[in-house]
Sequence to fold (223 residues):
Amino acid sequence: MVKIITVYGNMLLQAMGKTLLLALCGLFFACILGLIFGLMSVVKNRVCNIIAQIFVDVIRGVPMIVLAFFVYFGVPYLLNNMMGLNTPVMTALQAGTICLALNCGAYMSEIIRAGIESVDKGQMEAARSLGLSYFVSMKRIVLPQAIRTMIPSIINQFIITLKDTSILSVIGFPELVNTAKNVQAATFKSFQTWFIVGIMYLIVITILSRCAKVVERRLNRGR
Fold:
């Protein structure tokens, strides 16, 4: 185990950095998608509600590994062979980011919807009675209050997204699990390699979990 750490430790740390980068990129775009579809699910428009519900149901109903293969292999084939577009080959980072953004975005949409619905409806009615438009009322009155309840769930979703990056080893992205496979193949030490990887995940996820609890306690004290 000591030999693996001394020889391949730097490689594993770099892979963890790439894992965190991928998770952050995925979460960033997931927040955008989640906000869009979360708002669509609460507006008083039947078409928007149906579109948001279809997005959530479809993405949550497809396994992550299937979504990864579809984005990495299926989408380029669809664009180049079936639609006749000469698009460049998608990198593993791009495909991984899209996959995580879609998967996490569906759950973020539900987090945002629940956060908005947790705010008393009288807040929106009071803002509208003062002459504010729906979207201005949502932006200035409802969302700032909803974010307080959403932040702990968003941090927890980031932890889930970080663990989901391990699935993207199937498309060749050099994240921690994919790198660990190469280390295992070079050293023939399965137990030691995966033990080290497990400890690395445990340390990062424990730190994030503690951060989520600290944020939640501070938000509760601020109420």
